[in-house]
Amino acid sequence: MFVGIDLGTSAIKAVLVDDSQAVVGSQSHPLTISSPHDGWNEQDPHDWWVATLAVLDALAAAHPQQMSQVRGIGLSGQQHGAVLLDAAGEVLRPCILWNDVRATAECAEFERRFPRSRQVCGNVAMPGFTAPKLIWVARHEPEIFAATRHVLLPKAWLRYRLTGEMIEDMSDASGTLWLDVGHRRWSDDAIAACGLTRHAMPALVEGTAPAGRLHDMLARRWDMKTLPVLAGSAGDNAAGAVGLGAVRAGSAFLSLGTSGVLWVTTDRFRPHPQGGIHAFCHAVPRMWHQMGVTLSAASSLAWWSRTTGVTETALLAELPPQVTRPSPVIFLPYLSGERTPHNDGTIRGVFAGLSSGTTRAEMTQAVLEGVAFSFRDVVDVLAEAGSHLTQADVIGGGSRSRLWISILASVTGLSLHRLAHGEQGGSFGAARLARLAATGEAVDSVCLPPQRVETVSPDAALAAAYATPLARYRALYPAVRDAMRVSAPSMVSP
Which end of the chain is flanked by fewer CB atoms within 10 Å, N or C? Predict the structure, then answer.
């Protein structure tokens, strides 16, 4: 038996998987985000710990015999977050999350201090990455920075609580801007650019490697007969790739979760930072990947649901089963800024083309299409980077909506494969990594692709009809960007 734990942004999820790779049990516990200022997003790591104990307690209560047989535990984690610890290993402040854009100015400072960062780290500095966050902390919270002795990513901190070991895998470490991604090792120059030394970094292992054992007291808590080994594990997207069997060059998937990701596995380091493409290590040895990201994918629909006071299900029910023409409204899904291709943490979302006759259904359709247009930008930039995609598997909570997938297919030009278990995500991939770490089996023998239940191909007529709204969508970005830079006039008393 193997356990996979996914430390997501909105919830902790854990799955219990048997030797035939069947999911025996699943539990989740919600998480909340604190946003003390516009563009700031934080979580208290201790909330992750409470949630982790809750889901594992629930698994043990529901499946005591199977939990007693657990041999390995894998972790999947939201990337880029900065957990700062003092000399005693205590958390110094809330974790600054991946979708936090406060460190926009510090990105330029990082690249000024480390001019070779794009070549070594494989990515343009973006405010969501870990390194600029530390420069921000040094500037704005100097007492916190002075007390910092260790910097861990979210899942590495969770491992620390489970095992007492500070260890990170290559895929998650790639998202810090401190890793020499091509050589799969820390870059002392990148770390020094943030005023830190390698002593602040965790040890590095491959995602398939053993990386600590569960504390004895926790094993007793869940009545485990042996101390399970923890795998090196993976960042959330790499864990999703492992769960999908996307471990061979050319494998691709589209994740329609809180954020949106378009991933392609590569057999070598292929950076394309000028297009906002991420080039990271994979969680399996000797493999890498390219990835484009839109920061607000399914979260755009969640925002629209909160704003209207109507459930997502009810909003989607107002639309026809199949879209036959584009919405007259254009939506820019830049609610938390945007990564690919703009690398702009200050841009914000927009509805354009509203009239007195605009309906809520047209605006809902515009939200779905706006996210699809953002993915189309990613498809085109990946092609510039040498990855010409024609198909991809679809995962994430948004994959429940066939309508949304059909819109995505027609906008992006990709044939999209719906999966039998498209929402398993990172927790299932983490369980596979746990198995690899515990048994030493070959990656190809464990990381098999899932069953595809339907392929949604682009509709030629609808794809042609989307050409004009796509052009309008792209024209809006510079207009909105420039409008947001206009300073408010000073208020002078007469």
Answer: C
Contact predicate 235/283, CB 8 Å: yes
Reduce the DSSP state of residue 454 to 3 states and report it: strand
User: What's the one-letter identity of residue 306?
Assistant: R
Q: What is the pLDDT of residue 413?
A: 97
Query: Any alpha helices (H) in 222-359, and if so which ranges?
Result: 236-243, 298-308, 312-317
- From 180, 204, 232, the end of a domain falls on 232
Q: Which residues are annotated as a binding site for substrate?
A: 79-80
Cross-strand bridge partners of residue 26: 15
**DSSP-derived secondary structure letter, 282:** -
Q: Which residues are annotated as a binding site?
A: 79-80
Domain enclosing residue 45, as ranges: 2-232
**Residue 434 domain-assigned (yes or no):** no
236 catalytic per annotation: yes
Q: How far is CA 138 from the centre of its chain?
A: 26
φ/ψ of residue 17, rounded to 5:
-120, 135
Write down the residue that tokens 């997938």 correspond to: 405
Where is 394: in which H helix or E strand?
strand 391-395
Q: Which of 100, 169, 172, 236 is catalytic?
A: 236
pLDDT tens readout for residues 297-307: 999 999 999 99
What's the whole-model pTM score? 0.86
In this structure, the dihedral spanned by the alpha carbons of residues 325, 306, 339 and 324, taken in order and rounded to 10 degrees, is -10
Query: What's the one-letter identity of residue 170?
Result: M
- Domains in the chain, number: 2
The predicted pLDDT at position 38 comes to: 86
Q: Residues 224, 106: one domain?
A: yes
Q: What gap in Å lies between CA 134 and CA 84, rounded to an integer?
A: 9
Q: Tell me: do 322 and 358 sit in the same domain.
A: yes
Mode of pairing for the β-strands spanning 350-352 and 330-332: antiparallel
